[in-house]
Design a protein that fits this description.
This protein is of the alpha/beta class and 288 residues long. Helices cover 45% and strands 11% of the residues. The protein has a single domain, classed as Glycogen Phosphorylase B (Rossmann fold, 3-Layer(aba) Sandwich). It has twelve helices and eight strands. Strand 5 (180-182), helix 9 (189-199) and strand 6 (203-205) form a beta-alpha-beta unit.
């Protein structure tokens, strides 16, 4: 994913260091099998039947992060734009900090726009509607997740993944060919967002949701973006992103993330660079 850094790192420091680029620690086989009776699976089935492929936005901020209560109006404003764009959404409320207005959620549920589970089988959601049997057959034959080998005949229901940009979520999306919309909050998330959305052009970053010192000016590819931070600004940004995601820019990003995902899969597969590096690491520490 970062060949220039990988090539330069070993000679960057005054004292040479041995490097082992083992690749992302990501599940290529889902850790949990899809459950056909799950409300989430049934919601995705209905959306896929009604509106076809790429008709659902999947949203999750992980188990630790969630927008602050002061940002809840921004969050609801952004998500209100999803049905307006002709899409539905699955919002996994896995964090103990997850707080949303119940009447607002009920309105979207009753309209058939959304579902708000406390937990989702995330890899299965990102792959839907590929079945577990399809997955294991594909994996056994070619070591390639089915959505990288079968997309032409079975494109997934998920359009984009709106995420905080944690590394686990990001790599799970990449190897399944799902572009992302980032709302980074802390730690490695801003860098992951820049790397995936800006460098690789595999998604977008929400800028108008920024708060604190970051609510000033954002710099993107030579352009200056003033952060107004109002609900209207958030709505306008989300509307623009969703429009682009459904057009040529979205098709280009989907192609980019599929190619990037293939790089990761090839690296982790037998004889790939990550597989070889992991073996070398095992030898270096006496495990092999």
């Amino acid at each position: 994913m970062e060949p220039i850094v990988a090539a330069a790192l070993s000679g960057t420091f005054g004292k040479p260091m041995k490097t082992f680029f083992v690749g992302p620690s990501v599940d290529l086989i889902p850790p949990h099998l899809p459950d056909p009776s799950s409300p989430v699976t049934q919601f995705l089935d209905r959306a896929y039947t009604d509106n076809g492929a790429h008709s659902v936005i999947y949203i999750s901020f992980g188990t630790l992060f969630f927008p602050l209560p002061s940002s809840t109006p921004h969050l609801m404003a952004a998500l209100d734009e999803i049905p307006k764009a002709g899409l539905r959404f699955v919002f996994a409320l896995s964090s103990a900090n997850a707080t949303l207005d119940k009447s607002w959620m009920d309105g979207h549920v009753q309209a058939g726009n959304a579902i708000f589970p406390e937990w989702t089988n995330q890899t299965a959601v990102l792959e839907h509607p590929v079945s577990s049997s399809d997955f294991f057959v594909s994996f056994a034959v070619s070591y390639i997740p089915p959505l990288l080998s079968r997309r032409a005949i079975s494109p997934q229901a998920i359009h984009y993944f709106l995420s905080h940009g944690g590394w686990n979520s990001s790599t799970e999306a990449i190897v399944r060919g799902v572009p992302m919309i980032f709302w980074p909050m802390a730690a490695d998330q801003p860098m992951n967002s820049i790397q995936i959305a800006t460098v690789h052009d595999c998604g977008f970053e929400l800028l108008q949701v920024r708060t604190g010192p970051a609510k000033s000016t954002a710099y993107r590819n030579g352009a200056e973006v003033e952060i107004a931070g109002t609900e209207d600004a958030v709505r306008a940004e989300m509307k623009r992103i969703l429009k682009m995601s459904k057009g040529l820019r979205g098709k280009h990003q989907r192609m980019n993330v599929r190619m990037l995902g293939q790089v990761v899969v090839d690296s982790l597969g037998p004889g790939g660079s990550g597989d070889i590096a992991l073996g070398n690491l095992g030898q270096a520490i006496g495990l092999v």
